[in-house]
Design a protein that fits this description.
Layout (H helix, E strand, L loop, with lengths): L14 H32 L3 H27 L13 H29 L10 H28 L2 H28 L4 H29 L6 H12 L6 E10 L2 E9 L6 H18 L3 E9 L16 H11 L8 E7 L2 E8 L7 H14 L6 E8 L5
Parallel strand pairs: 2-3, 5-6
Antiparallel strand pairs: 1-2, 4-5
Helix pairs in contact: 1-2, 1-4, 2-3, 2-5, 2-6, 3-6, 4-5, 5-6, 7-8
Length: about 400
């Protein structure tokens, strides 16, 4: 009889595991980029190929970015502390911003230098065949490295590793341009080598600006995309006890996200029950949305988007208790007073000892007298009296 197979969902990688895997992958990238940078700069110089030298500088920027990834991965794994209560994940974001800015500067410099040399093509030194073979080797090495890095990056959901992988893919694509440029120069069109260098400079510049802009958006707390926000909204609203939802806010934190939400619950439940609903909502989001790092749930008894309903405009408990003392002069000291700040007014619940009222009709009569006393009160809408049943 065939045995059934049980499939278990893979356990979530810990921050330390993520950092270790990211660093292993990045060290592979370091070795490849170190070899290619050296080969391109040396051969490009001796073979008189401006596009190969430019590509060598691009590979050198890859090398710098690899070390930046290693540093950021080590720093971002540190737990939250007093100075960084949300953790150190945004070290990755800052590193991506630095990488993008540096790429933009390198690309701009290559573009400028190529443009200057194109104005004097008559003095160009012929390109040698060795540059062509190194350019082809670069395409193969970079494409293989990209395929390796992107698999690791997607598994770890690391924006910085994805950025580094895309950088490597762009390097492979630009190496193709270099192959064409050097090939054209070998056939007698020397200016093609410079055109290839200029085009590659533009590609590096464009990529750098894109990376820097993405990191900058995260640093200014740009929210998740609309589909992700909607999915989180549905999860919160599906939580038992949640009656409504407003002010759902999200922001990125490197490969994860932080969520803030105001959920509406029954206004008459206890604080502890409201807290339990909030914790349930938080747990559901963390369970169903692995990209979310943490959720802050604020409990509301009503939709408080209207500023006229703000509870802070109403008197505090201390002030109201003083006013109630004058209104309750013919009643004993309450065992408990509950205040409900709802709809711009206060509803008061008074809890008295079980043996004060003879019957329910006496209690209702006392409530009617209180209603007359607060008829013109600016803050109190109603007062209800309650008493515990006498023990048998």
């Amino acid at each position: 009889m065939a045995q059934g197979h049980h499939h278990h969902a893979p356990a979530r990688a810990t921050p330390a595991d993520r950092a270790a895997e990211a660093q292993r992958a990045t060290w592979v990238s370091v070795v490849v980029n170190l070899v290619m940078t050296t080969a391109q700069l040396v051969v490009g110089w001796f073979a008189h190929s401006q596009s190969l030298i430019a590509h060598g500088l691009h590979s050198f920027s890859d090398l710098l970015s690899d070390f930046l990834v290693i540093y950021a991965s080590r720093q971002s794994v540190h737990p939250a502390d007093a100075a960084h209560p949300y953790g150190h994940a945004r070290v990755e974001t800052a590193a991506t911003l630095i990488l993008g800015a540096s790429l933009g500067l390198i690309g701009g410099g290559i573009l400028w230098e190529s443009g200057m040399r194109l104005q004097h093509v008559e003095v160009l030194v012929p390109v040698e065949i060795s540059a062509f073979w190194v350019a082809i080797a670069t395409v193969v090495a970079k494409e293989g490295l990209y395929r390796f890095l992107i698999r690791v990056a997607e598994r770890l959901r690391s924006q910085l590793l994805i950025a580094n992988a895309l950088h490597t893919r762009a390097d492979a694509a630009s190496a193709l341009v270099v192959v064409v440029g050097i090939g054209g120069a070998l056939l007698g069109w020397g200016f093609l080598d410079l055109l290839a260098a200029a085009l590659m400079g533009f590609m590096i510049l464009r990529m750098g600006v894109g990376l820097a802009w993405g990191a900058l958006k995260e640093l200014i707390d740009t929210g998740l995309d609309e589909s992700q926000v909607e999915a989180i909204r549905k999860t919160l609203l599906a939580t038992p006890g949640v009656l409504g939802l407003h002010e759902l806010r999200t922001r990125r934190m490197a490969h994860q996200a932080l969520v803030d939400a105001h959920v509406q619950v029954d206004a008459r439940i206890s604080v502890s029950e409201g807290h339990r609903i909030a914790e349930s909502a938080r747990a559901r989001v963390l369970r169903e949305h692995p990209e979310v790092l943490d959720v802050l749930v604020h409990i509301d008894p009503e939709d408080d988007l209207d500023p006229d309903l703000a509870a802070t405009r109403l008197p505090s408990r201390e002030v109201l208790l003083d006013e109630l003392a004058a209104l309750l002069v013919d009643l004993p000291t309450p065992e408990r007073v509950m205040l409900h700040y709802l709809g711009g007014r206060v509803e008061v619940e008074i809890f008295l000892a079980h043996d004060f009222f003879a019957d329910i009709s006496t209690l209702r009569s006392a409530e009617g007298a209180l209603a007359e006393r607060i008829k013109d009160h600016p803050s109190i809408r109603s007062i209800s009296l309650n008493f515990r049943a006498a023990p048998n």
